[in-house]
Amino acid sequence: MSDFVNEFWNWYVILIVLISILACAVLLWAQSTVRPKGGGTTTETTGHVWDETLEEYNNPLPRWWMWLFYVTVAFGLVYVILYPGLGRFPGVLKWTSVGEYREEVERVDAQVGPLFEKYLKADLLAMAGDKEAMEMGGRLYQTYCVQCHGATAQGSRDKGYPNLTDRDWQWGGEPAQVVETITGGRIGMMPPYGGNPDAVGGEAGARELANYVRSLSGLSHNAELAAKGKERYAAVCIACHGPDGKGMQALGAPNLTDKVWLYGSSEAKIVETITGGRTNQMPAWKDFLGEAKIHVLAAYVLSLSSGAAAR
Ligand code: HEC
Ligand code: HEC
Questions:
Q1: Pocket of ligand 1 (CB under 6 A)
Q2: How far does residue 19's CA lie from ligand 2's centre (Å)?
Q3: Is the backbone of residue 298 left (phi > 0), alpha (psi -120 to 50) or beta?
């Protein structure tokens, strides 16, 4: 309730709440003082008659029902004293939903914390064989990673979310590298060459390059265009993707000689990559998950691709 711009709204809310509760009480009291005339022996009617003989009685509300209402009014008053409800007044118990959430998180952390601490000391690759650790890793994955890398961790081709179950690593598959990827996040940046015709020779040059890139992984290509593309590649692309096209993990520049694609392998898609560039970000999880959970997750990610090797 700290977002009121001034005192007026604070009191405005307090008054509306209190007046509403009191008005209910007054209304009840006014109704319950009506007594049937004649001390209850005769029956008063409202004068409404239907179907010739059907009359509406004018009886007071039943006692038990009135008391039920008084109890709810009292409950309302006690509630706004204990809990937040009166403007800025936090309530005597100082309860907040954020506070309740924090307490819950602390309780769970206290329970599972020692478990994660135990795993923090374990070797990453050895942990990949630990069933309990992998179940925990799997649950963490399904909570925090699934929206981008997919339920089966196979990524999403068009959006550039990498497949985590293959043995192809954009940023490196050594345990320390995977931990670093999850901890600090990664930003992969392929510069756009479309706006600078000198760099790659415009659309035609980009097509030559695309044919050369396709030739690197043995895909069908036009040999004449690819030969021209090779020269352009050596002038521009070599700095990041390397002389043999095998990429550079330190920059996240993908290996262009395998059959694994972040954005697609058609000539049109590769031309799009070259002219428009590509930028993609893996978020950093250091602050959110902490070292111990990242350790378990990294082991889980590594187990996915060693599983692929076994298959
Ligand atoms: C918001 C989307 C998003 C979420 C959520 C996300 N990632 Fe990623 N992740 C990416 C992107 C995008 C990349 C590729 C970055 C690039 O293009 O350089 C990536 C890359 C990676 C890589 C590197 C793969 C390689 O080949 O080197 C690993 C490992 C990884 N993510 C693991 C995880 C884990 C574990 C989680 C859950 C804690 C997670 N990611 C959550 C988007 C996401
Ligand atoms: C400054 C370094 C750099 C240069 C120079 C560079 N690239 Fe890239 N390239 C990258 C990075 C990093 C990515 C991955 C982008 C991402 O993570 O989304 C990439 C991605 C690509 C992809 C997409 C691969 C896939 O799996 O879908 C292709 C194709 C590509 N580059 C070709 C080229 C060509 C051709 C050139 C020369 C005209 C070139 N690159 C120059 C860094 C570079």
A1: 144-145, 147-149, 160-162, 164, 169-171, 178, 181-182, 186, 188, 252, 280-283, 285, 297, 301
A2: 67
A3: alpha
> Could you tell me the end-to-end alpha-carbon distance of the chain, in angstroms, rounded to an integer?
57
With a 6 Å cutoff on the Cβ, whether 133 touches ligand 2 is no
Ligand 2 within 6 A of 252 CB? yes
Chain segment 67-120, per-residue pLDDT in tens = 999 999 999 999 999 999 898 888 999 999 999 999 998 998 888 888 888 888
Q: Are 169 and 177 in contact (CB under 8 A)?
A: yes
CB-based burial, 237-255: b 16+ in 10 Å, e otherwise = beebbeeebebebebbbbb
pLDDT(219) > 80:
yes
